[in-house]
Structures are given as C-alpha cells and as structure tokens.
Amino acid sequence: MLTRCIAITAATLLAALSIPVTSHAEDDPKGDGGIECGLYTCQVEVDVPGQGGGQAGGSDSTGGTGGSGSSVGDDGNTTVCKYKLADPQPPADSLDWEGHEPGDGAVYEQTCGWGDLDGNTIVRMVWLADPPEQVTVDPAVLAQRAVDSMTLLGPDIASPRAAGKYTVGVPMWMWVNQSATTYGPNTASATAGGVTVTATAEVSKIVWTMGDGASVTCTGPGTSYTSSEGMAQSPTCGHVYSKTSAGAQNSKFPVTATSTWTINWQGGGQAGQLTEVRQTNVQVAVGEVQVVR
User: Fold this and answer.
1) Deepest in the core among 5, 29, 45, 188, taking most CB within 10 A?
2) Class of 139-287 in CATH
C-alpha cells in the first residue's frame, strides 16, 4: 500500500508507525536510495492493518470540505476515517496526485483510526475523484455492539441450591439474585461515525426446566422463602416434585434456568429491541419422607 504523509520525515514515520518501511530507487530522484519527503509528499511502502472504510461528506470547522466513514475489518475492529480537503492543493508535480492532473479530482487529508479515532491513528494524503460521500452508520449494529459490552450472564440461582435437600410433595420456591449482569437493568452505549446508540437490557422472563419433565415460566425474579410460609406454595415462581431424583443421573435432577434478556435501544434517530438468551444449571436432589411404622 502506498502511503503519503504531510510534512514528516522518514525517521518520524518509522518511529510513529513502528512497522517495516521499504524505499525504492525510483522514489529518489537523486539516486541515493533515500526516501524523498517534501511539504506534501513522503512516499514509503507500508503495511497498514485494517485500513479501509467508507467515506462521508460534511463540513469542517477548520476550513475545507471534510467527511468521515467507518468499516469493520476482518479482525472485528472498527476503522474510522475522516477527510479534509487539502488547502492549498499540492503542487502539480506532487506524488499526492497519484498521476492525475490538478483539477482532476482533489487531494484530501485522511485520518484513520480504530474505535472512532480515540486510539491509534494514521494520517495520509489521498487523491479522490469525487468528494467523500455520506456514509450511513447502522444504529442497529451499534446497538448490538453496546449489548456485547454488557457481559450479560445467566440467572444467579439462589434457590434451589445444589447443596439443598428437597422432598416430594413439598412446594419448592425458586428465585434468583439480582444484579446488573444477571438480571438488569444494564445500560451501555456504542459510538461510530458520529452516531451514538444507548441500549438498556433487563430480564423479561426465566424458564425453569425441572429435570422431571416439567417446565415453569416465571416473569419475575421469584420470591424468597421464609420459614413463616410453612408448606405454602410460592406466589410467583415454584414447583412441586411428584417423584424422587433417585433414578436420575447422580441421583439428582438437572435443573436449568434460562433467562430472556429484552434490550431496548435508541440513537441515530432510530429505536428498536433486541433479545439475548442466557442459562444456568444446577443439580437438585429430591427425596421422600420415610414413614416408620
């Protein structure tokens, strides 16, 4: 890839990019094998990872015509580029024209970085036949990126407990501990190309598969059991086993709690809803009361 930078020396470019640089004899009119750098031109051959992206039109408060664009590279990182019309334009003999004549398109200052230009950046001069075109950033893509940053987890099961002992015919109360990552609400934002989307996630339901063939759907975290409740059934989320776990593997029922996260997002003039599913497992021993005669 041919990279041209504004008013920098070869040594400065090497130190800034920390990547191998190869010069060519034809780049050096003096024939001494050096790298020629002028006010608008510095020609070296470099490998720029993740380079690319769309372009967008607009205006720049520092003068000239500018724009921005973004793309997602093969490594999943977002490359964001911004453009500003070079003012004045380079001389007619500048390498920045890439073989074109002045007036045939224009030369722009391109600044590219990863993560909306808040990380490493590369600045170079590029020739474009037409002014940068407007790029539309998909808010739904940003919403998913915000969700991915939340680290949403499966239910934090408080009951039934793996160490607990439960009895056939006795109501079991199921409930979960609540936190931002296991129940919500959980809020995060993502930004790219000048668009910011904010998403809020919260568990809307938990489906319990009890290991005995039964399934229980609870629309809340459940209710904590207290001894004063006696043999009462849970008012919000419970189950009654009709057989022991003696015939199950390890003599325990495999209980799975699957939570559905509902995520509402808005930004970039749009709004929508996403869904994520997470689950947690626990092994439950269920016995029966033996009557001694």
Assistant:
1) 5
2) mainly beta
